[in-house]
Amino acid sequence: MTIPHVDVKAQYAPLIPELQEAFARTLETGRFIFGPEVEAFEREAAAHLGTQDSVSCANGTDALVLVMDAMEIGPGDEVICPTFTFYATAESIARRGATPVFAEIDPVTLNLDPADVERRITDRTKAIMPVHLFGRPAPDFGGFGLPVIEDAAQAFGAGGIATSVASTFSFFPTKNLFALGDGGLIAVNDPELAQRIRMLRFHGSAAKKEFLYVGYNSRLDAMQASFLRIFLRHVDDWNQQRREAAARYTELLDGLVETPVDEAGHVYHMYCVRSPERDRLAAALKEADIGFAVYYQPPLHLQPALRYLGYSEGDFPETEKASRENLCLPLWAGITEEQQAEVVSVLKRASGLVRS
Ligand SMILES: Cc1ncc(COP(=O)(O)O)c(C=O)c1O
Predict the structure, then answer these.
(1) Among 84, 79, 7, which Cα is nearest to 324's?
(2) 46 in helix, strand or coil?
(3) CATH topology of domain 235-350
(4) Rg (CA), the chain
(5) 85 touches ligand 1 (CB under 6 Å)
(6) Which of 64, 172, 176 is the best mutation target for the ligand 1 pocket, counting ligand atoms within 8 Å of the beta carbon and taking the most?
(7) Helical H runs in 235-304?
(8) Residue 354 — very low, low, confident or very high, per pLDDT cuts 50/70/90?
(9) Which architecture does CATH list for 8-232?
């Protein structure tokens, strides 16, 4: 049985008639940039997330850059973030000319370790940027007296950190809330910050012909907004389906590998297990035509583009171990029990627990 790592189409297939209707509606308006669909999506997303406002943009990477630009984070400033994350987290800091300062993860949650973050704070630290990795809510870093920017690209609806300045989201098609293309969002409470981000995403302008800042062209288009409005109505249900599928895996795996410790608010963007035998298990999945992913290998402190930061192998032992051991199993809202049972039986056979 061929099983993909993520079946995006299975999630939106039942909604195709609604998506076609939204497409036709937008086509009829002749407005493809900004306009009522984008404004409505921003309002609805903020209401869903429980924030005062939300500003859409072209993707989750721009969302991070826009927030830091609006906060005037730039050269000479440091931002603490994990090295066990997608490259865009640190890239966005470097893109602002600021310095990404990496901190270690907690090996159980794979999220930033508060004790290590605290050790790395200096008088140049301008913000802490936790990532809600694989959909698991990161701890609250508000107690350090520094602004917190949440990279929530993988965790729409995981419950934000109450003390954060902004949360950023990606709508890349494999994310738990996705567009049919690229898209991003920044959820904010401070109206001034929201206003500044709104200007920055449109060339630093609030009114036609007046440019107050050197900004960006980073917009969510009306088509994507109209699709996202439909998906937004399903995301809670999808997150619940992901949680149920995760619980099913944990039960079926029955200690075969280290399974994720469950936690309230976890939306299981990925179901990530760990095993020292990871490569053997991954090879067995590949052989059986079952999709999987292994993440952040090498982690960011060992990526060529960030070599100038001066880190070397061994600097983050927990991160490096997690990057050698993690294996993300097939998961999406709607994966069947039969598909999950097949994944687990392949893993069991590979471990020699079941004879083939
Ligand atoms: C943790 C994290 N941050 C940032 C991003 C960047 O999002 P995008 O691909 O929409 O630019 C992603 C996703 O790709 C991500 O997983």
Answers:
(1) 84
(2) helix
(3) Aspartate Aminotransferase, domain 1 (3.90.1150)
(4) 21
(5) yes
(6) 172
(7) 235-253, 278-287
(8) low
(9) 3-Layer(aba) Sandwich (3.40)
Give residue 31 CA to ligand 1 midpoint distance, Å. Answer: 27
Cα separation of 132 and 272, whole Å? 13
Measured from the CB, is residue 151 less than 6 Å from ligand 1?
A: yes
DSSP tag of 274 = E
Domain boundary assignment for the chain: 8-232, 235-350
Look at 204 and 161; give whichever has higher pLDDT.
204
pLDDT band of 111, cuts 50, 70, 90: very high
Asked if 75 and 98 touch (Cβ cutoff 8 Å), the reply is yes
Q: Is the pTM of this model over 0.85?
A: yes
Considering only CA atoms, which residue is closest to atom 12 of ligand 1? 153
Which own/partner pairs from 45-50 qualify as long-range (CB within 8 Å, at least 24 positions apart)?
Answer: 45/185, 45/187, 45/228, 45/232, 46/187, 48/157, 48/232, 48/235, 49/156, 49/157, 49/160, 49/167, 49/187, 50/160
Taking the CA atoms of 191, 51, 40 and 186 in sequence, report the sign of the dihedral they define.
Answer: positive
| Residue type at 262 in one-letter notation | D
Annotate 289-315 with b (16+ C-beta within 10 A) or e (fewer). Answer: ebbbeebbeebbbbbeebeebebeeee
pLDDT in tens, 285-309: 999 999 999 999 999 999 999 999 9
Q: For ligand 1, is residue 54 a contact (CB within 6 Å)? A: no
Cis peptide, bond prior to residue 298, ω within 30 of zero? yes
List, in order, residues 6 or more apart from 114 with CB less than 8 Å away.
Answer: 139, 141
Bridge partner residues of 150 (DSSP):
167
Q: Are 281 and 288 contacting, i.e. CB atoms less than 8 angstroms apart?
A: no
Confirm or reject: Cβ of 154 under 6 Å from ligand 1. yes
Mean pLDDT of 73-86: 98
